[in-house]
Amino acid sequence: MMNFINKLSKTTIASSMVAASVLGVSNISHASGSGAGPGENAQGQQGQDDAIAFGNTKNPKNVIFMVGDGMGPSFNTAYRYYKNQPGAKKMNPTAFDKYLKGTNRTYPNDPKENVTDSAAGGTAFATGHKTYNGAISVDNNKKPLKSVLEQAKEQGKSTGLVTTAELTDATPAVYAAHVDSRDKKDEIAQQFYNDKINGQHKVDVMLGGGSKYFGKENGHLDKKFKKDGYDLVNNKTQLLNSQSDKVLGTFSEKDMPLQIDAPSKNPLLVDMEQSALSKLDKNKKGFFLMVEGASIDKAAHPNDVTGVMSEMSGFEKAFQNSIDYAKTNKDTLVIATADHSTGGMTIAKGKDYKWDPEAIHKMKHSGMYMTKEIASGKDPEKVINEGYGINFPSKQMDKVKQAAKDLRKLQKEGKDEKDPKVAAATTKLQNAIQKPINDASHTGWTTNGHTGEDVNTYAYGPGSSKFKGNMENTQSAKNIFDFFKNDVASNQNQQ
């Protein structure tokens, strides 16, 4: 019976691959295993395709670890409201809901703070050790801590980092660098190139923002990677045409634009993830891939609900794509969680028991985008009219104009964005821009920083039961280290 299942599994996978190549699509999935879409059972029992796909695999050969940076539980709930029809008496699940396993405790090991940042949070689920805020995979004595990506590379697996932030930002950095401060981004990029395992660069596929840290100002690291066989890409077309199994893709100078604001030449998170999978899955020994929806956090810091929902949508697409991949690659584990929550978002505020995502759906641009445009000198009224899809009160427009005027005065004095006065003035402008959509949608916020609640963990595939219940955020890494230690190639890959 098991031989039959193995043969059927291989036949199904091979057929899917042939169909995908004929149709010119790169995403391989079972039609009956596309996850929890609208109208599907949120509790969905494993279907027949799942049973065939997994056979008797105990330890995953491949791990896709997904980080919704800043994605606290209120974000997951709000996104469910956002996807459903207004006034729905029964809400259809999101792609995440079916795979909820448990929650993570996010606190760091910091002498002054008990709410984590992304560096300490990332270090915890990359290395299995809690540390101080700002640390990039070093302990409290600033000694290096081994990451699961490094373990994967030691075992001959392929590795990848995909993010909508800079590749040198905290979450991707913790997997392949060891520095005492997340702010040392030039050094992080240099370690990506200089630090090797078994004579090879640690990361085979690097896709995200942050081109400035790989270019002329930091020793032309991009050209050095190219010399070592990496494709260099900077737009969606180049990414699709990339032939090498190793690639460095930087699609913006710093963080990538939010999905709602991005130019069509930019790949979305799901595009980057799919490209990474197409390269990494050629390795018969397996792979480790980290995929970060970084801009959920980037939008939550300025309390930009439009940006947050845009990025939740992008992260959900990437999550569903990873589930589809796992359903046709039986030894793949998918985990999705968050490092912390951001902004203290509440679903409803004030006296009304109401949250209105329809107002958010009408928005044409994020508040972050409009703030940046106005800060660069563009006419506030024109930017607001082009970006808002709901009424913007005239009195509030006056406040936006005044905030823009105050910011420009500081800019004319030669102060840059790092100056505290400029930062405060920019925040004032952002808040003035954001108020009408937060009011119209009844979205509340408590902070421009992080918050300390437990975050949700979602998982699918062999080993997913290890993520059940309330756990320390370090347990994710401990589980992955254990899986890789006990990794046994499936029958399919022993042929």
Describe the structure.
With 495 residues, the protein is α/β, with parallel strands linked by helices. It is 42% helix and 14% strand. It is built from 19 helices and 16 strands. The strands form four sheets. It has a ten-stranded mixed beta sheet with strand order 7-8-6-3-9-1-10-15-2-16, sandwiched between helices. A hairpin with a 2-residue loop joins strand 4 (196-197) and strand 5 (200-201). Mean pLDDT is 89; it is low at 1-56 and 490-495. This is Alkaline phosphatase III. Keywords: Hydrolase, Magnesium, Metal-binding, Phosphoprotein, Signal, Zinc. Its cofactor is Mg(2+); Zn(2+).
Please tally the β strands and state the result. Answer: 16
Give the overall shape: globular
Going by helix content, strand content and strand pairing, the class is alpha/beta
Strand order of the largest sheet: 7-8-6-3-9-1-10-15-2-16
Which ranges are low-confidence, i.e. pLDDT below 50, for 5 or more consecutive residues? 1-56, 490-495
Helicity level = 40-55%
Q: What is the mean pLDDT?
A: 89
Largest β sheet strand count, sense and barrel closure: 10 strands, mixed
The tally of helices reads 19
Strand content: 5-15%
**From the alpha-carbon coordinates, what is the Rg to the nearest angstrom?**
22 Å
From the N-terminal CA to the C-terminal CA, the straight-line distance is 18 Å
